[in-house]
Amino acid sequence: MATNGTVKVELRVRRYNPERDEKPYWGSFEMEAEPEDRVLDLLHHVQWYLDGTLAMRRSCAHGVCGSDAMRINGQNMLACKALVKNLVRGGKGRIQVEPIYGMRVIKDLIVDMEPFMEHYRSVMPYFVNDEPAPENGRERLQSPEDRERFDEATKCILCAACTTSCPSYWANGTYVGPAAIVQAHRFIFDSRDKAGKDRLAILSQENGVWRCRTIFNCTTACPREIPVTQLIAEVKGAM
Amino acid sequence: MQVHQFDAVIIGAGGAGLMAALYASEQVNTAVISKLYPTRSHTGAAQGGIGAALGNLEEDHWEWHAFDTVKGGDYLADQDAVDVLCKEAVDTVIELEHMGLPFDRTPDGKISQRRFGGHTNNETGKPVRRACHAADRTGHMILQTLYQQCIKNNVNFFDEFQVIDIVMNGDRPAAVIAIEIGTGELHVFQAKAFMFATGGWGKVWTITSNAYTLTGDGNTVLYRRGIPMEDMEFYQFHPTGIYRLGILITEGVRGEGGVLLNGEGERFMERYAPTIKDLASRDVVSRAIYLELKDGRGVNGKPYVHLDVTPKTVNHYLKEAGENRSIDAHYIESKLPDILDFCRTYLGVNPVSEPMPVQPTAHYAMGGIPTDVDCRVLGDAEGTVIPGLYAAGEAACVSVHGANRLGTNSLVDLVVFGRRGGKAMADYCKGAEFVELPANPTAEAEAQLNRIRQSKGKTRVATLRKEMQAVMSEYVGVFREEDGMAKAVEQVRELKERFENDICIDDQGSIHNYDLLEAWCLGSLLDLAEVTAVSALARKESRGAHSREDFKARDDVNFLQHTFAAMGPDGKIALSYKPVVIDRYQPKERVY
Question: d(Cα A89, Cα B245) in Å, to the nearest integer?
Fold first, then answer.
């Protein structure tokens, strides 16, 4: 954790305030940063001390709440998991931050999440099993192997980094997108769930899994290291 | 201004709010208002497990869980409430499994359980496996599962609406006022019953495991309308936050066999808690770390110690303890994936092969909005119920955690009392009428926002917040004494003055104005900081997380009672006290 001196950063931020600006533009802020600083720390520095009008979503600041997915130096990441030292080589450089693509920009780094949530809700992202629970009043049993089958999908935090990195989604916003498919996977492959067929029927439609062209952007973008492309392939294979 | 009408309105969409929403919405027209998208709530950051005496791996009883909770809370918890917590923990965890929650499994397919601090076999005093877990993301799984079920049940959500006032008519709640963050518009939510499940306020301190958004808004909204705050001096510092960042490293690390080592490589907890060592209660371990640091036994002269979960170290101590199991790197990777990720990402440290640098981090409020076991809010220390007003989760104080919460019991609290509160609200709504709205219900909310908007001072909100955090960390942290706390009270009051008269914000717009909202949230933090310091100053004893250098012993004669701090009409804080419910376990010395 040694600090190798500070880094001179030019933070370029895509700005847009509908109450003030006719169109988006690039804002630029110069600052000294620690190599271990998160991009979120830099954005906070702007918001707190330089320009309080900068708007973004964030909460936990350590990669579990999923609020702060952004496009940073051309790649989708969580601002709270993107460290300066991994973005800037040497003692100075530029970090460029934009809102995630494929969504309507509301203000600065804030996009309209509603279409994303709508796709999520469309795949029955909830456990279904109407059979009576065990008579002894206890848990349904599940082997560790059966539990492992869908483990990766349970890590999803709905940050939208995957869906908004997907060229198929950029081209056609009616595609449910990788995140919704991961959420469906989580239940389709859960040995306790009874609605897998219904979800597969939804995902076999025009805007379902077949719009995935195996581009792998989603897998690269996922801050939870979920092998998204592989999970999508597993859902395709279950059709 | 828009006016909405629902039978029940729940403010906050973490574990408690969502559980309440599931139950209330089954019976009455319910809305959930949350300043975040529900899945961003901080329940999702809980890691290690949810405690329930399922006995899946060894003998266990809910009564043992109850005793551990009472002892962990240094005998300040209300024992009737603790019984409810621990008894209902068992079937609530089963209910979560039935909702689909993907717990880790034992080889025979049951919910897997691990050891956690302060949870013991009451006969041997040794740690017991009681924490039901899903890797180290148990809270994430609970939050996701409850939100999924809410979607299934078509619960009404108002996402990114922040409640900033409650309108009372006499002593009855009539409406809450929320700002729609996306537009800046004020909304009036009229209802028969309201539940505050808005979480904690760790941002009062500098180093915290809490999210930026944990600013105690719900508590402040009620406090400003005269509702007392209970036991605010009891704030938990979790022993193992990542050095300087405060990010939580679950106690589950120690539950899996990890140990704390000082700069000399010594497993120092053997000196402080000879029986359960690293798995002593959090207050005990945090104090031990501070004392080690004070005596110059930090690592490399820095203010941190090591948390070591490398297989080599763990297996060494397992062998020393006579246990016939050992662990390997794969085991750590599968049980603690997120912890490894945090350390690798933020520190460049790989916990499989090297120890993690940790320090205590502000973590959890034992105190909060006083309630009974059905989550009904109490208006005074006599226990007068305010009809139609409910609270649950970290925002509330039932009190089941007493002076120090046991690990895993926050998640238990959320689901047990979320469920009870949801049911109680629905029952109440069926026999209740709407309370008449006073004229101009948004007046106070507008006034609060306008004061901030029009403030023409020089101090930035972030600067003031930092000062408050420094004061509270210095004087109202793990160890406390009279002079320091008196200074804290005085300085927080000065900061409040400056907040009223000397701040400035840049953003005068309506859409997603976080400049304005963060300022409002700082006002909330300042109020809660003041209540915390005032409550702490008046408690002249050491109990649980409230540890005084000038009163080192627990004083059951004078202080076996809950603090109630309320803002009087003159703006001054008035303290009163409520007896602790003690039925089964008489207070005795607390040794681990």
Answer: 23
The C-alpha of B103 sits at a distance from chain A's nearest C-alpha, in angstroms, of 8
Q: Which CATH class name applies to A113-238?
A: mainly alpha
Domain boundaries, chain A: 7-110, 113-238
CB contact under 8 A, A133 and B182: no
For an interface test with A, give the residue of B514, B515, B516, B522 to mutate (most A CBs within 10 A).
B514
Q: Cβ of B346 and A36 within 8 Å?
A: yes
Scanning A63-213, the segments in alpha helix (DSSP H) are 84-87, 114-122, 144-148, 167-171, 177-188, 196-203
Establish if A1 touches chain B: CB-CB under 8 angstroms. yes
Contact partners, residue B244, CB within 8 Å, separation at least 6 = B207, B359
Topology at the third CATH level for domain A7-110: Ubiquitin-like (UB roll) (3.10.20)
Which among A47, A61, A154 has the least Cβ separation from residue B102? A154
Band (pLDDT 50/70/90 cuts) for residue B444 is very high
User: What is d(CA B149, CA B154) in angstroms, rounded to the nearest whole number?
Assistant: 9
Distance from CA of A211 to the nearest CA of B (A): 25
Cβ of A137 under 8 Å from any chain B Cβ?
yes
- Going by the DSSP 8-state scheme, the letter that residue A136 receives in this structure is T
CB B79 within 8 A of CB B70: yes
CB contact (8 A) between residue A1 and residue B243: yes
pLDDT for the residue B569: 84
Mean pLDDT across B189-207: 98
SS3 B261: strand
Q: Which of residues 51-80 of A touch B (CB under 8 A)?
A: 51-53, 55-67
Q: What's the pLDDT band for A4 if we cut at 50, 70, 90?
A: low
Q: Do the Cβ atoms of B438 and B578 come closer than 8 Å?
A: no
Distance, in Å, from the CA atom of A204 to the CA atom of B415, rounded to the nearest integer, reads 36
Q: Identify all chain A residues contacting B515, using CB atoms and an 8 Å cutoff.
A: 47, 52-53
- At B64-103, the pLDDT tens digits run 999 999 999 999 999 999 999 999 999 999 999 999 999 9
User: B338: pLDDT confidence band, cut at 50, 70 and 90?
Assistant: very high
Left, alpha or beta for B572 (phi > 0: left; psi -120 to 50: alpha)? beta
Q: What is the DSSP string of B403-433?
A: TSPPTTHHHHHHHHHHHHHHHHHHHHHHT--
Q: In this structure, are residues A82 and A39 in contact, taking their beta carbons and an 8 Å threshold?
A: yes
B163 and B218 Cβ atoms separated by less than 8 Å: yes
* Exposure string over B260-271, b if 16+ CB within 10 A, otherwise e: bbbbeeebbbee
B282 catalytically annotated: yes
The vertex-A153 CA angle with A150 and A154, nearest 5°, equals 90
CB spacing of B506 vs A53 below 8 angstroms: yes
CA gap B225, B175 in Å, rounded: 13
CA distance to partner chain A, nearest, from residue B105 (Å)? 5
